[in-house]
Amino acid sequence: MFCYQCQEAAKGTGCTIQGVCGKPSDVANLQDLLLFVLKGISYYSVKARKAGVNLEATDKAIMDGLFATITNANFDREVFINRIRKALELREEVKQAAEAAGVIFPVELPEAAVWSAYEEADLDAKAGTVGVLATGNEDVRSLRELLTYGLKGMAAYAEHAYQLGYTDNAVFAFTAKGLAATLDDTLGAEELIALNMEAGQVGVSVMALLDTANTSTYGHPEITKVNIGAGTNPGILISGHDLRDMEDLLKQTEGTGVDVYTHSEMLPAHYYPAFKKYKHFVGNYGNAWWKQDKEFDSFNGPILMTTNCIVPPKDSYKDRIYTTGQAGFPGVKHIADREEGGAKDFSALIEQAKTCQPPVEIETGEIVGGFAHETVLSLADTVVGAVKSGAIKRFFVMAGCDGRMKSRDYYTEFASALPQDTVILTAGCAKYKYNKLDLGDIGGIPRVLDAGQCNDSYSLAVIALKLKEVFELNDINELPISYNIAWYEQKAVIVLLALLYLGVKNIHLGPTLPAFLSPNVANVLVNTFGIAGIGSVQEDLDMFLAV
Ligand code: SF4
Ligand code: SF3
Q: Which of 92, 137, 273, 358 lies 20 to 30 Å from 364 when distance is taken between CA atoms?
């Protein structure tokens, strides 16, 4: 195996024996093989689209497959074997549909478009040969992987929107185009950089699509105080990013005597009016994903993982953890997809919860969030007034991901050391590094404004664009906003590409720069966009505040 898609890649270069995340070598290879076949599907799909043929099943398989290979989403070998077999069938279907529409394919086809096998041993054998390192030139490899990881993030957000009935054909079309481009040896650095920028553009569209899906279905997030203590009823803990699962679970648990708590990236569900009405939706339990090995133990009740990030479960709670959607782990119960027009069936979790002890309280108090674009823009006069009076000197976008590394303590220290006249804008699980510090407020505006999940970084971009308009600036970079972003997995990659597409410069990315950026590609990002890493808290504060 060779995987370097996340920030915790072994030795800062890549995992080669087993993932630091716990992904076994065979599963990593099978994920590579699934991607290989999805690229083959994409090769045909691009040409089929040009001939007016669109197969929803192949678009969906590409989206789901990309999502399932995101860091910490799915560790289940069987899932990948089945999906590879299914993808090989779909590849044939899209090829035949294109041919029926008059497309004539060349005799020489990319290997990903023609290779086939069925037996598990053959799949395993091939899987070890089609990964990242199959591309020899390190710059081309780097740009192909940057694009692929951006597409994975895009697929995840597209899938959440899909669950709510929102799709955008342009997102599917670009995904196929991007994946097919990674097979094209005639494309050099310049073309691949352009494709990465286009990914940023489509990334903005997909986040806007998901924002519309979420807010049209569940209302606009409102300023909300979320309880972080525990009640006396047994509970179900729900984690990940899928709001449709949240809805089904809240409906099915109502009146059962079982409470519902959020974990990690599901915290922002509390901000939506449609969920706030449930009395048994009592609070958020715990912190970011990587603390789940302790927090799931003390929660005592069933846990539903709707997406990444899963940490390989300990035996002490393995029989209480469930996956659904694209998430999976061998030996862990999986809740099947909903039938068209129906709901998922969470009765197994509810019945198990009734036999469990209530959660052990691990902290008490409240945290405040719900500062997505609609809310912040409704406060625009107050915010603009505070900037004009000098009460707010600078905003710091600190969105992104949290992770295990000790070096991420930087973000807690940085947030604590920021002067009192600064405000943090956040989204994603990065917030857990500072959302329980008492950083106070500025004239009633909290110093940490949480917009929501990582995809709600879109809200932060909308807010920045609105402020640019209000202050009548020509360039988004003239705003008093600095970007000090923490990344971990591939959703952060699409958020980054989207910000670059919107013209945001001088983004600081930490705790380390991606291992998949070759020195030359890193240089392009530094020279074109002013991307930089992080230094010490004091050096960085001095640098940011000297602007
Ligand atoms: Fe390593 Fe990250 Fe890949 Fe897991 S996802 S194998 S930790 S690089
Ligand atoms: Fe966190 Fe996995 Fe990225 Fe959605 S839950 S931000 S790391």
A: 273
